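Job type: complex structure
Entries:
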Amino acid sequence: MTRPAAKGGSRASADRLARLLNLVPYLLARPGIEIAEAAGDLGVTERQLREDLELLWVCGLPGYGPGDLIDMAFDGDRVTITYDAGIDRPLRLTPDEALALVVALRMLAETPGVANREAVERALAKIESAAGDLVGAPVAVRLPGDTERVRELSAAVERGRALRITYYTAARDETTERTIDPLRMLMVAGRAYVEAWCRRAEGVRLFRADRIDAVAELDEAAVVPPQARRHDLTDGVFRPSPDLPLITLRIGRGDRWITEYYPCERVEVDGDHWLVSLRVTDLGWARRFVLGLGPDVTVLAPVELAEQVRAQAAAALAAYATPAGAAPSADQAVGAVTQ
Amino acid sequence: MSRNRTERLVNLVICLLSTRRFLTAAQIAATVPGYEHDPDDPKEHEAFQRKFERDKAELRELGVPLETGTASVFDAEPGYRIAHREYALPDIPLEPDEAAAVGIAARLWQHAGLAAAASSGLAKLRAAGVDVDPQATLGLEPMVTVDPAFAPLTAAARDRRQVNFDYRVPDRDAPTRRRLQPWGVVCWRGRWYVVGHDLDRDATRCFRLSRVVGAVRVTGEPGGYEPPAGVDLISHVARWSGPVERTGRATVLAAPGRAAGLRRWAVRTVPDPAGDRLTLPYADPDFLAGQLVGYGPDVRVLDPPEVRDAVIQRLKEIAARHEDLAVAGGAR
C-alpha cells in the first residue's frame, strides 16, 4: 500500500524529503507565518523546522549562486519565502494518498447521521477531480443504517446535554434506564455507537445506537468525570480480556460462522466438528447463545454452562408437556440458571 | 539518508524541474552538488551510477514523475527531466467546511499504512494553501478499518490485473484457490468485499476480504481486461444480503419481565395471566426457532405449529446432547 518496507533509516529520510518539498509551497502560501504555528501545523518541532529551513537555504537552481538558492526572510519569529527556485507547488497526490482520502471521504459521506454531509460530498468531488485518473479508485461504500435515530442522537450529543436513555443490554437480556454524559458518537464496522460516561455503571461505555430504544435530553450539561477514558477501538469494539469466562464448544459445520463473528481464542479441528474456545462477558449470555445456535453444538466447558443449557432445555420441554395455558416461568428452571 | 543525501535530492528535483531539455546522467553529475566524481575512474564512476540509480528510485517512490528521453537525435544516452505540469498538484479550491471534512476523513483510518497515506495526502493539500481546522468534527465519525487484502485488491482492480488468492469459507474444510479479474472493492454494512469475474466459475462473484487467506498474488498484466461498463459494484454484494421480508406471524408467551430482547421487536404485546403474549414477525421458521430456544423456559410458542414443532425438536436434541456431559461432569 505505502512505500515498501524501508531498509535502515531510508523511510525516515524519504519522509524528510517529502516534508521539504512540501515546506516551500506551504510557506509560500502563508507569507510571514510564525515558525511555531507552522511547526504545529506540519506536525514537527520548532527545532526540526528550523533545521529544515537551514537545509533548504543551501538548495537551489544550478549555478548555486546567491540569486539561485531558495531564499527566505526572517522577521523575529516569522518567516517568508522570497525565492522558491521553482518548487512553488506540492507534488501531486500518489495513488495511495488519493485512495486513502477518497475512500475515507466516501465512508464519511455514507455514514448515516453525519453532520454537513453536503460539504463532505463537495470535498469528495474536488479531491476526485484533482486526483484525476488515479481515482478510478474502484471502491464503493454503502453503510445502511437507521439514519433518523442516529441523527437524533448525534444532534443531542452535539448540544452537550446529559441524556436519559432506555437501553437494551444483550449480554444480560435486559432493558434499563440510564443517565449518560456523552463523549462522542462513532461508527465501527458499520454500526453507530454513543460513547458516554454512564452514571449507573460509573464508567465509560459504548452504547449501540440500534439498542437505544428511547432517548430524552435532560436540562443539564453533560459532565464527564476527569478519570473517564475513551475506548481504544483499533481492535474492534469487543476486546475479550483474559479474566472473562472462557467457554469451549464443539460445533458442527453449519455453526462455523461463529468463528467469523466472535473473536475466538482457539479453534481446533475434531473430525467433522470444530472445538472453539471464546471469552464471554456473561455466562447467561453464553447460555442463550448456545441454546440459540442449534442442535449441533455441545458445551464442553465449563461444566456449569453445560448443566445450565441442559436444565433450561429440559425445563422448556417440561412446559410444552403441561397443558396449554399453564404459566411458563423461569422458576421451573434450576435455580442456578437465573443470574 | 544523511543531510547530504537529502540536500542532493532536493537539488536534483529543482534542477530537473528547471530544465526543458533532457539532462544525461553525466550532465547531472557535472551540475548537481553531491555527484562529483572522476568519470574516467571506473570505480568512482560505478559508485556514482549506483548512487544515481538509488536516487532516481527514491524520487519515483515518492511519486516524482521522472521523465526519460533523449535531448536530440544525436544523443544516444537517455536523459531526465521533470515536467512541472506533471509534478504539481492541481489547484484544489476547498471551502473551509470542505477542508475540515478532508481533515476529518484523513484521521479516520485505523490501518497504519492508509493512515500514513491519508496524512501525507493532507500535508500536500496544506502545502497548496488549504487551511484545515484541526478542531472540526462532524458529530459522528466512522472508524475506517480494512482487511489486509484491501490494498493489493484495490491496486489490482485499478490496474485491471488478474489475481489469485486462497479463500476460506467456514463450512468448507480447506481454503480453495480462486482466480479473479477484480472490478472493485465494496464496503457494505461495515464489511469489505471484492467483486469481479471469477475465471473458474466463469461468472460474477463476490468475496469477503476477511476470508482471503495469505497473500493476494497478481498474475496478470496491467489492463488485462475491461470490467462491464457502468457496473454497480454495491448491487452485486447487496443482492445477497438485502432486507428480509418478515411476513410470518408467531405468537409466544413470555414470562413476566423476561425475554427483553424479544419484547423489543414484538409487533403486538397483550397481557396474559401467565405473562405476555407477544406477536413476532418472522421470515424463516427455523431461524426464529433458534432465537426462541435461546430464552429457554421463559418463552413458550403458542402458534404456528411449524415454529412450535421446530422449537420442541431443537430442545429435545440439545437436552439429549448435554445429558451425558452434565452427568459426567458431576454437576448433578
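Summary: The domain at 246-322 of chain A is CATH 3.30.70 (Alpha-Beta Plaits). Chain A touches chain B through 144 residues (CB under 8 Å).
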